[in-house]
Amino acid sequence: MRQGEPTLAKQAGRTGRKFSALSLIRKGMRGGDWPRVWRHHDLAPTYDVVIVGGGLHGLATAHYLAQNHGITNVAVIEKSYIGSGGSGRNTAIIRSNYLTPEGVAFYNRSVHLFERLSQDLNFNVMFEQRGHMTLAHSDASLRTMRWRAEVNKLQGIDSEVITPEEIQKLVPLMDVSGQARYPILGALWHPPGGIARHDAVVWTYARSADAQGVHLHMNTEVTGIDVKGDKVVGVRTSRGDVSAPIVINCTAGWSSIISDMVGVKMPIHTRPLQAAVTEPVKSFLDPVIVSGSLHVYVSQTARGELVFGAATDPFASYSTRGSLEFIESLAGHVLQLMPSLAKLRLLRQWAGLCDMTPDFSPIIGPTPVDGFYVDVGWGTYGFKAGPVAGEQTAEAVATGRIPKLIEAFQLDRFEKGTLTGEKGAAAVGH
Predict the structure, then answer these.
(1) Are 180 and 204 contained in the same domain?
(2) What tens digit of pLDDT does each residue of 122-141 get?
(3) Radius of gyration of the chain (CA)
(4) Which residues contact 340 (CB under 8 A, 6 or more apart)?
């Protein structure tokens, strides 16, 4: 079996095969010919669209090209295995309580797509809308929360500022006393927010794209992109060359490198984002908790593990190794919020690569090179945007027009000075 090709029986919907609980147990004990989630293909000499990057954004784009626009002669090219990059190195938080009207509308569309994803694609992505809580530790922070709440309400988003007493009802272990080093004055409460299983979301889109005829090429590295007369004509890979009139850059960490292949410069710098997970314990934490002042956030998985994260590392790097400094700082800040977690043991830590733009908003759409599109610059918030980014990028490619939801995220905004500043809602909230 090839690396990255999970063969879970419950993913056999593409083949139409059904498995009872007993048959799953028998297969697990005896082994056997498990159905593959997606197929292996030889590299075709030509495709209508080549997508660089086999993560959530690339797979979602392929799915929506096929489902919404009937474009199925598509190749998704991934250097490693499906979901091996940022899609498998995040904390799977989903929300739409952003600061700018453009950001709120965009991420709200993604929340709606997540709400229907399991039913629409017949695969459980384990999306749980437990609520998202952003704490305020100062008067200035509380004013920002009220500002965000009003922007959200004007956009029809369920979001409000709640009191320390209301916070403690939702999270009994939270220290809301006046003796805390960082007193909690209130919080922005966003009930539609939650978490999903990141690998399940990736597999869902990969499975659907494959079923519609898209070719998924793993362990295939893009080594160059051919351009003639300011127009894309093909892609060079470690397995051979293919011709294609459209290439979409859906990478994270290497987005500027891929764009450099066609001479398009991206205002992006890459930083690691570290996270950690504890041993599983009895479920006690429903909402996702975020503290921008302490640069920390925490959620609890369905298995009982606590997932912690913080802000990006303060330097540009391609390292995905964890550090002792991160764990020490993280543990101290978490214990300031919930001192009773002191005896929990950390099981593992990891890091993902975040492509940061000057205004903390993504770059989506066409570029000066005809046929070259980008879906990049997602910083710390790419997972939650996967469905909507794929949907909107697919529409831009298929119609040749820029959809309204991504008008504010065009590359030329950096030349025009029309930035979409999301630092106040995206820097730590993930």
Answers:
(1) no
(2) 999 999 999 999 999 999 99
(3) 22
(4) 173
